[in-house]
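Hi there,

I know you've been waiting on this one. I reran it after we fixed the sequence typo, so this is the corrected version. Both the input and the resulting structure follow.
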Amino acid sequence: MSITATELKQNLGKYLLLSAQEDIYITKNGKVIAKLTNPNQNRVDTAKSLFGILSKDADINLAKDERLENK
């Protein structure tokens, strides 16, 4: 999403919330001067990429026990 610096000043709260979902490019005189982004986005992308990898019957306690047995 691209917005003007004036729009950002007038609606800062709105764009802070939106920046958690997508990058916000701020323009001044038609040129991009800044980017408002979520600092945790890499972690979010990593977590999303892991969804569906584990089977539905996966048991964390069983996995811990197996790992401890192999040490």
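Quick highlight: The chain has four helices and three strands.

Best,
R. S.
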